[in-house]
Design a protein that fits this description.
The protein has 187 residues and is an alpha/beta fold. Helices cover 20% and strands 34% of the residues. The protein has one domain: Rossmann fold (3-Layer(aba) Sandwich). It has three helices and nine strands; from the N terminus they run βαβαβββαββββ. Helix 2 links the parallel strand 2 and strand 3. Helix 1 crosses helix 2. The protein starts with a strand and ends in a 10-residue tail after the last strand. The structure holds 1-O-pyrophosphono-5-O-phosphono-alpha-D-ribofuranose. 1-O-pyrophosphono-5-O-phosphono-alpha-D-ribofuranose binds next to strand 2, strand 5 and helix 3.
Length: 187
Amino acid sequence: MAEVNLDRLLVGREAIERRVGELAEQISADYSGAAAPISIIVVLKGAVFFAMDLLRQLAIPARIDFVQVSSYHGRFDSVGEVTLQKDITMAIGGTDVLLIEDIVDTGLTASWLIEHLQTHRPRSVRLATLLSKPDRRRMPVTIDYTGFVIPDAFVLGYGLDFEEGYRHLPEVYVASPRTGEPEPHRE
Ligand code: PRP
């Protein structure tokens, strides 16, 4: 696994904990009148960390499933492609669906997934994401619950990876690839 430099802390543990708690409260209130358990769909792999912290604090009945996609982001003039690696197996027809992402970047993955989930004829579909990078958006997507709006920087930790590593860091960092060159000498 290639190594990176953790340049700076972007979202610390306490901020994550506080915001996740607020989102859980808001989501619980918004769905409190739902007649049936809501269907939570977690996007593997990055969103697992955020989802597990969030779901443990929900005060409403919920059923949980996972989905995994791989996305190829085309060049500037194309919208890119999304391929389904693992579909849901839980029935979501007629239920209120909450899709959980770790980050909405170009918006390609989330918008594709929302359209895909709509084919199962749910009652509603909403989107929650820990992070949103609006400057990078190429596909319009409505985000119902946003943890943090962040700048266009390479970020990792709390689910976000670099070559599958660094996901388990408890906070979100701005990082840069390590070139292998020695660090510049500082007085
Ligand atoms: C990340 C993230 C979102 C997607 C967002 O997944 O979890 O699913 O990219 O990018 P977009 O808005 O530009 O489509 P990734 O493909 O890195 O998979 P991972 O969660 O397994 O790391």
